[in-house]
# Entry
Amino acid sequence: MAFRKGQRVEVYQKSEDESWQPYMDGFIGVHGIITDPDTTKNDPDALIEVTLDGEGTHRFPQDCLRPLEKQETSGNG
# Structure
């Protein structure tokens, strides 16, 4: 999947990638915005920089991220 800057995503599962760290387990289910998709490398194994809602900016393997629907907005429930 090609991620793009500004895209809303969710950390939806633990990654199988060796770069996954135990502290990242606490981010499963958290939403954020792609800030650096590493599109210049076009490398499916590259880490994706995501600014998580209320959790700061972190780099994640791509297999733990999924895009959110466009209609998803904060405060609507």
Remarks:
- The radius of gyration is 12 Å.
- The chain has one domain: 8-67.
- The chain has a mean pLDDT of 86.
- The chain has no helices and five strands.
